[in-house]
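Q: Start with the shorter request: fold the first protein.
A: Done. Sequence, then structure:
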Amino acid sequence: QKVLVIGDSITQGYGPLFSSGSYFNVLQRLTGYNMLNQGIGGLRCEPASLTAVDGFEPDKIITFLGTNWYDAADIYDYENATIEFYKKLTELYPDKEILSISPIWRGDDGLDKKRFDWCIDIVKRELNRYDNIRFVDGFTLMPHVEECCCDKLHPNEYGCLLLAQSIYKEIKKFKF
């Protein structure tokens, strides 16, 4: 199976000391999938970030985005961008299975949990429009402790291992 993974710095591999310890690389080993990492630090759920990848036609797609919108000045920009992102993604890949993971726990001082939940609810509501997209609540994928992170947000090696194992369980659950 060929899988395109679209994400931000967490997917890119920021956090673990060695790239082999990133959740992406651990997940690739667990699944045996041929995965293409399109993680870009700071990437937001914006339609302009989506283009077809020349020479790589995925069988499935995983998106792992949203944390970079958490502190957006205008939360309605987040909502509109999310709607347009998934619309464009399904136009580019209309017949592909998509697994969409919402943001993981953040250990930020002063985290506005109500705002964070509102962002996740937007994604859930939008994804309900599509039969080919499965939602995974990223907030449940790893323990909510700083020991799993290198900087209160990005998972360290241990956090990445737990994250990859949890995503793998979701993949099996959805038969993805």
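Q: Next, the second protein, separately.
A: Sequence, then structure:
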Amino acid sequence: GRDSVGARRRETEGCRPNKRPQGKMRLGIGGEGMNKKLPVLGLCLALLLTAMIFAGCGGEKKQADVIKIGADLEMTGGNATFGQSAANGAKLAIKEVNAKGGVLGKQLTLIVADNKSEAAEAANAMQKLVTQDKVVAVIAPIASSSVMAAAPINLQAKVLAISPTASNPKVTVDPDTKKVREFVFRAAFIDPFQGSVMANFATRSLKAKTAAIYIDNSSDYAKGLAQFFEETFVKNGGKIVAKEAYLQKDTDFKATLTKIKGQNHDVMFVPGYYQEVGLIARQAREMGMKLPLMGGDGWDSAKLAEIATPAAINNGFFSNHYSPDEKSPAVTAFVEAYKKEYNSVPDAFAALSYDATRMIIEAMKKANSADPVKIKDELAKTKNFAAVSGSISFSENHDPVKSAVIIEMKDGKLTFREKVTP
């Protein structure tokens, strides 16, 4: 009650100077005024300073106990489903490691920066992560063009960036200097391998002798896949009878599809992303085009069948990095953990980001350090890493040597067709 409040006031009154008395204050030795209060004030100030020091030390210790990994991902925009899956995969890898005590006696934390599915924004996001957030490594963007736009920034900061899926050869090797980008890696196989896999599948499994190519002309990824598909298909004795292009965010493809339909061909290779591919598939089927449609890992989204309709995407095939249906211990364990965490089946973007994050962590352990340069040096030495997407070893160009899988679309479901080794 009131008495207890008054008691507390009296107890603490010594920490506050009294009001100045009306008469003169005696300041000599043995005087009554401030002399009696000075020791008490000094004690209060000392206690206050001590509390501030301990609070500051606690904050520094808390910060020092955390190792920050960045993620420059497409959380919004045209490739948002890819970026969101990649973020989930990275978070799951970090959660599992933290549950086992973390790394170097410290916990890991993931800082995600949204690049809005745009190359310029990817550069801005990378700048924030390496300069403001002071991350020790970065999960780089999904799209090849975005990784290349951000590469000069993480190179200057000497912080490694590893993309889960960027597959254009120029991502890790500068086309102007022909030199390896020292701080850029990838967890995905590159376009020459992916394009060749699909060309070989077309000629050997689908028995195709002629093909049309319909590419996203605004995407380095699509151009790369188309180039290597054509080279291998022709080398196998096939013939490319039509080559047409569209741009991202186009929605009406019927005029171009009419031109392609007029050519005599067995398959159509459409190496784009699921948004446009879904519309192309639906419009092609509406025009009576029943031939097999083929593509790359940009097809890998649950939204593909929604956009195309399940029936329209039947007889569709694409190369991918893993299949949740593959019966290996690593895949089974990952799929179960991901389902428990997110209540959904993980796509290849989640799996590759999970693999990329685990490789960063493993490099950190081997380096016995959170120094970005030392992590980079150990990552480059990676050999036979047991990843969800297969055994990974890095080439001298920072590209993984690994297997691929062929996915067949059946009534809207992604079905494992076959596995292809290098």
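Q: Describe the second briefly.
A: Residues 1-38, 47-61 have pLDDT under 50 and may be disordered. The chain has 14 helices and 15 strands.
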